[in-house]
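Q: Could you predict the 3D structure of RING-type E3 ubiquitin transferase?
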Amino acid sequence: MSAAQLRHANQLEIIRSEEKDRYMISLLSQQLDELYTKLFGLDHFHIYQSYLHRLSELLYFLTTTLLGRQTIGEEYVCLIQYDPAKKQIPSLFHRVSMVFLRVFGDLISKYLLSSLIIRPLAEEYFHPKLSSQTLELLLNFVLTFVERTHKLFFYLTGSYYDLSKTLTGIRYLIYTRSTAESTSIENKLTRTMKILCLCLCSQHLVESYHQLKQIAVSISQHRQELTRANDNKEKKIISDDSTSATIVSVQCPLCYEPADSNVALVPECGHVFCWQCIHTWVAENQTCPLCKTNTMQSRIIHLINY
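A: Sure. Here are the predicted structure tokens for RING-type E3 ubiquitin transferase:
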């Protein structure tokens, strides 16, 4: 007879629970999107869609975690939230903190990083007047680097999948029966996760290198623009007999900033956006923000010398 016991959930069990929760949140988000379009139409819908997704995520955890219940994903895998410091179910304060950080943590971290760290350091060591595009690239690099590094530690240790749970110290327990077969599967899983972690680490380094290269290009281009502006002492005037290259600004419909050097094209419909804006949008929606034509990240085209 095998002995029943509580143990910490492994990586696959936590991922299955998270995937189920994300699926349920996406269904709730779709319902809120349809409700908004029926009430207010499609005007400015792309501006408020991200807020509707946060609202759906907040409502989902409000009716589950904050009420002391399992989420659908946790119930599906039979996971139990656990506070290892006090060796008990997380308190209401811990659960409220975890949900708040999960829903609004990225906004808080963006504001703090941008205003207190990235902007002062960038202006001191790179240039006194960096473009908003360069600052956005620096901010996204730092956030992405932290998130990917955290995921690597999760695949390696299986402790915390989400940063909100890391900061609040909430782990998962699962009730199982220990057998020789389950022990063997656990050992194989550990080896597999180490291999996966090695692959993800290589991918992480390559993508970080490309992001840093893009930041360096953006800084260089902005320095050249500021140098030309100082030499001319006036605003640039586009004329037919100008000997310099003509620069036509393209305004991104999402952030309303010029996308001179990072223009991205959605090939299915021909609309153009900032490279970072359209990638962030398509990662969540897989549609064009303007006409809702289906697309995906791999099909977006980076326009050079547009």
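Q: Anything worth pointing out?
A: The two ends are 70 Å apart (CA to CA).
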